[in-house]
Structures are given as structure tokens and as C-alpha cells.
């Protein structure tokens, strides 16, 4: 009855994670339309443009570079890449289906068959090696037209467009793909709504009323995807996916403690509360008041509320890269960056090359917090270290820093399992080098597989194995034995 679990489950899903817009390339081939990701340039311009008044496209686009247009040419080299994943021993591979590859504008009634053909081949290639696909239906790549012409996710029409997209891919692949997630890092819109909601200042990003309405529409769309999936095949597992950053109050000052509680509720828990529990949490009214949401403008129906309650997700997928610190009593604190958010520097932690603070214990805390709150299976679907890798003259890539980072987080996951957490799997981010979502760079590398391509687009795109490739191969073979 009170068994202590001291190892990973035998059916644990070891693998890796990517997103279509960051590695596929072929951004305008075989009928694919432009997505939001396709108009976000690289480097320092990326967040400036993304936070600007409108999407930069066509007339001004020639001023910038768009590395994801080429990606790492996974669209043409996926067989080579999946073979490398199989060599590592992957049990699963998390990837996304580019919405604009299936519905180029997002509002069509009939899907693009060429796009479906590509994912037919990709899924079959995974299954050839007994790698289970884990598919994110929408991962920061909504069709550009839905943002520009419909105003993004604040428009209720997008519920129907997403429902049509989800129905097509779920129906087509329901016999081959068991694990799905509806939206990638849905809560990221709290800080940066352009990628997940298609909102920029020109179409309402500065008004939290629009962000909240967009969330509601996404919650309903997610519930409809769960409904469709379960009606097609009761064995399908359809989860939500959130960005989780374990949060600490800077000190014992009750003011900072209360601020941290609100941070946890508003950012870490709100979207999951709705999708997992099936209803808006008690603190929603407080949250709406504090962010000046005009409740009279919200479009929420009784039917919506009923669907949220009936079609909750089966598991919780989440990304974890770093923790953060809440401090509201002083203005002179050092600030650090992070995964689409920042915070006060934690003096007890070291940072990555890009300033993200490294906190393996924070992952154990996150797993306990989420499982205690929801009692649903958890899936760490993103975790990793973005770093600058050096290729030695003999071609070797010694990335001990990555091995150290991932080892510590695997130890933290094992400890959380001993704590009683039901953990399904682990898919480190960017298992093969790809274009960074936050910077649009290739030099910020996460992968076990090195891709010969630099920030200027120079390179052969040849794939090579880093030291971490062989290390992760042993981790999977031993089912999580770090040493």
C-alpha cells in the first residue's frame, strides 16, 4: 500500500522533443501557407518585431533573416533524423503538426493532402523503429491569416477552425498515435501572446481582456479536441501543455509570499486549472480585476462551461527549464532572463550562457506541486540546456555541461517518483539542434545531435553525434541510471 518507488517505470517514455516551425523548413512548399513563426526574424530583431505593432511581412520582410524558413531541412531529411533517434533508443518522439501545412490559411474546409502525406511518412518512420509519436496539435505555428484577418485567438471563429484541424489529424492518425497535446505552453500568453494567441499590439495584445478571451476560446477548442479524440478512440491520451517555472518568494516577508502565491496561481496554475479541473478557479475574479479585464465584453456561453467540465485532459505535459524568484518590495534587484519570462536573480543558482538559472531541485518541486494539485499523470515534454557547442578538430563535441544539466534533472525526476508522483515520460527539448524559438538562432543549441549550420545560414547541415548522444543512449538503455 505504501510502496516506495526507487526507479523509473518499465514503460517510461524516454525520447526527445521538437516543433515543426523550428526544424522542418520547407516553409512554402507543397501547399504550406505562412504561419506566425514564419514572420518572426532572427537575433535581436525577433522580440522587437514580435512586440511591435503588427506582423512584419512581405514589403518589409527583406530587411530581416528568417532561419526557420530553412530550419534544419528536416522536411527532406526526417528519415536520417529518426534513424538517429532510434539509435539513441527513443521510446517516443514529441513533434508538432504545422497547422498551415494542413490548412494553409487556417479557414479552409478541405485539408492540404500534400501536408498530410508528409506526416503520414513521418509517423510511419517513427513506428518503423517502435518510437511512439507524441503530437502537439498547435505549437506556436498558427496560420498567419488567422492572426492578421481574424485577429487571432480572441476571435471565437478560431474555435471552429481549430476544431476542423484537430478533427482531421485525430481522425487520420488515431490508430497510429496514442499521445496528443492540444496547445503548446498555453499559459505563455500571460507574458508573450504573439506566438500562442496571435496577438500583437495592433490586434489587442495590450488589453488583457483580449488575452483572457483568447484563453477561453482555446480552452473550449481544447475540450472539443478531447471530445473528438475520445469519441474516435477511447484509448487516446490527450493532454494539455503548460510552461512551468517553479517560483520562490525572495524572502519571508509576507508581502513577497503573497505576491509569489499570486504568481503561482496566475501563471503556473490558471490554464491547467481550467483544462484539468474543468472549471475556472476561485481566484479568477481576483485575477480579472487586477489585470483590468472588462468582464462585460467577454463572450462565454453556458455551452462553453459545460464542455469545459465534461471534456478535461487526460494528462499534463509541461516544459521546465528554470525557476524564478518573486520580489515586489525593492527595485534594486538583479534581474535574469528565462523562457519567455524573467525575474529576480536567485543567488543560490548558476545560469546558462543565455542567463537562464539552472535549478534541478525546482523540477522535483514542480512535479510535486502539480501532482499534489491535480492527481493526473505528468509528462516532462521539454527540458534542456541551450549552450554554445564547439566542434573539435577531430569532429568531436564534448558537451559535458549538457550531460551535467540533464543528469541532475533526471535525478530530480527519479526523486519525485519516489515522492509518489505519477510521471509518464521525459522528452528533452531540441533533441537535434534546431532554430531557437526565443532568439531565432542556431548557435543556441540543445541537441544530442549537432547540425552543421550557423546563425548566418552557412554550413553543410551534416548531422553528427555529441558526447551527450552516447550518454543519453546509456540512460535510456538503463532506464534512467545516471551513474
UniProtKB/TrEMBL annotation:
Q: Which InterPro entries match?
A: GH, GH_1_N_CS, Glyco_hydro_1, Glyco_hydro_1_AS
Which UniProt keywords are present, listed alphabetically? Answer: Glycosidase, Hydrolase
State if Disulfide bond is listed as a keyword: no
* Pfam families according to UniProt: Glyco_hydro_1
Cellular component (GO) terms are:
cytosol
One GO molecular-function entry: beta-glucosidase activity
> In its UniProt record, which GO terms are filed under biological process?
carbohydrate catabolic process
Q: Does the keyword Lyase apply?
A: no
Active site: residue positions: 382 (nucleophile)
**SUPFAM superfamilies, per the entry:** (Trans)glycosidases
> PROSITE patterns per the record?
GLYCOSYL_HYDROL_F1_1, GLYCOSYL_HYDROL_F1_2
Protein origin, superkingdom: Bacteria
Q: Read off the PANTHER family from this record.
A: 6-PHOSPHO-BETA-GLUCOSIDASE ASCB-RELATED, GLYCOSYL HYDROLASE
Q: Which NCBIfam families match?
A: PRK09593.1 (NF007158)
Q: Which family does it belong to?
A: Belongs to the glycosyl hydrolase 1 family.
Descriptive protein name: 6-phospho-beta-glucosidase
